[in-house]
Write a structure and sequence with these properties.
The structure is a homodimer. The first copy, chain A, folds into two domains: about 5-80, Tetracycline Repressor, domain 2; about 80-200, Tetracycline Repressor, domain 2 (Orthogonal Bundle). Chain A contains eleven helices and no strands. Chain A has helices at about 5, 10-15, 20-40, 50-55, 60-65, 70-80, 90-100, 105-125, 125-155, 160-180, 190-200. The longest helix of chain A has 28 residues, at about 125-155. Chain A is elongated and about 65 Å long.
Chain lengths: ~200, ~200
């Protein structure tokens, strides 16, 4: 723990030379939250003190920006997801592959690890679960839009169960990574193989 | 905590009247492990003391049967999975639905909750992860066998990606339950809808 982490005087802190500016401090704080959670700390166990110490900022810097720990964790989870992926919008297959690949970047893998570490909390804490769903929802909606577009253009079947198909496209990647099943379903070509399996179906034509 | 939980004399304990016999004690012990984990205790935080207290047995009763905590947790996870489901062996569709429904019983839901609570440990602890995979593997093999049988009979496509299809059939149920997505994909008819989506595929025929 350094001198900064024990400072509680916001004004003084801002003036001190060599200290991170707001955006950098925010990033360091959010990063510290994610690091603590993926180290195995439960949401309940994460403390503002520990976050401040790990980020190298004073507690006041955190409290100036976030009213409480729950809001801080929500922002950390949101920040990690990054921007929504851009889609070519030509072929449904290509767009679905792009969406699944966006869930398998190193950043996404880290997100998956944090989600896995938050699962015991997500099960118990309704507020946290709602927050997590709010983070996921815009991405799920992008996938739904691709599927609906496919139905509209006639590429996909008219009676497609859009919600179940979205789950079939997102769940395998999460479970493969969380349960470490790469020895069964390798990372190589994962997105293409999954999308093709979902599109073509299993029955013999 | 009762008197039993502090007893360390195995012989004395066995003779005492009114104490559970071995099978009952075993069940109480395994149940206590699962209860502690689904209450949100990490595998690291679960102690033999806490298990003994919750099960109402002495620590010696636990140590007589399990060499260490890891072996105890492994047995608890294994015990919860219960017997492999029996399959009619007629139609691939019916057997797959039966397998998915077997993953959605109240017992299976509890297993899913324990797995979710163990995920932070499964990610960090290679030994625990291997143990968990060993518990899952016989069930995964049953699903593979159904799929391979379908390929052999010509019901399923000859170039089926068996491993990916098994993941597509098992992962959605886990994620729907872990992330509490019942408002998006309801429990009602889940197994049938998933199996039909996997079998028929998404592309318009």
């Amino acid at each position: 723990m350094n001198a900064m982490s024990t400072s509680t005087d916001a004004g003084q802190e801002r003036k001190a030379p060599g200290r991170p500016r707001n955006a950098q401090a925010d990033e360091a704080i959010l990063d510290a939250v994610l690091a603590l959670i993926s180290d195995g700390q439960s949401a309940a166990a994460v403390s503002i003190e520990a976050v401040a110490a790990r980020a190298g900022v004073g507690k006041a810097t955190i409290y100036r920006r976030w009213p409480n720990k729950e809001a801080l964790i929500a922002d950390a989870v949101r920040a990690m997801k990054g921007p929504l992926p851009e889609l070519a919008g030509q072929s449904v297959r290509e767009d679905l592959i792009a969406l699944i690949q966006a869930n398998r970047t190193p950043r996404a893998q880290r997100y998956g690890k944090v989600t896995a570490c938050l699962l015991p909390d997500l099960i118990k804490d309704d507020e946290l679960a709602r927050m997590h769903q709010a983070v996921i929802e815009p991405r799920r909606e992008v996938m739904r839009e691709v599927l609906r577009r496919g139905v509209a253009t006639g590429e996909l079947r008219a009676d497609l169960d859009v919600e179940m198909t979205a789950l079939m496209l997102s769940a395998p990647s999460m479970i493969q990574s969380m349960l470490r099943l790469q020895h069964l379903v390798p990372d190589e070509g994962f997105a293409e193989k999954l999308v093709d399996a979902v599109l073509r179906g299993a029955v013999a034509s």
